[in-house]
């Protein structure tokens, strides 16, 4: 099973726990964007508001899985806020991406930004 399939399975089980959405259909690209926009207004919102907390937890979880699977290579030290901004930027600039599954949206944004090279971590601008 490839990493994206694992992410979709794992995080579809995780969604109801973190999102406070009525059902899993409500946890979508628009919900992620809403969480990012709340975070963008106030970075402390990730600890206070359900949508931003869900966004934060979701991105953190996928960063952890993709890093462990060596699907992304991030430098040390790594600021998680960078990953939040990468995902948020994709959601804002590519509205059509919001139709994809949240795990796919986050994974695609991170794999594009933090590809692994044969020589170790690399980062695209």
Automatic annotation (TrEMBL):
Domain of life: Bacteria
Signal peptide (residue range): 1-21
Organism classification: Bacteria, Pseudomonadati, Pseudomonadota, Gammaproteobacteria, Enterobacterales
Name listed for the protein in its UniProt record: Rap1a immunity protein domain-containing protein
Domain Rap1a immunity protein: 48-116
Entry keyword set: Signal
Species name: Citrobacter youngae ATCC 29220
Transmembrane segments: none
Gene3D superfamilies recorded: 1.10.890.40
């Amino acid at each position: 099973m490839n990493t994206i399939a694992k992410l979709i399975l794992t995080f579809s089980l995780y969604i109801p726990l973190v999102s406070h959405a009525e059902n899993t259909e409500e946890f979508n690209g628009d919900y992620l964007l809403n969480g990012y926009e709340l975070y963008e207004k106030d970075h402390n919102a990730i600890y206070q508001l359900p949508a931003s907390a869900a966004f934060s937890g979701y991105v953190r979880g996928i960063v952890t899985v993709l890093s462990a699977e060596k699907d992304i290579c991030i430098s040390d030290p790594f600021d998680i806020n960078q990953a939040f901004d990468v995902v948020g930027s994709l959601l804002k600039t590519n509205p059509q991406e919001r139709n994809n599954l949240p795990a796919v949206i986050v994974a695609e944004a991170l794999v594009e930004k933090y590809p692994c090279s044969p020589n170790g971590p690399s980062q695209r601008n």
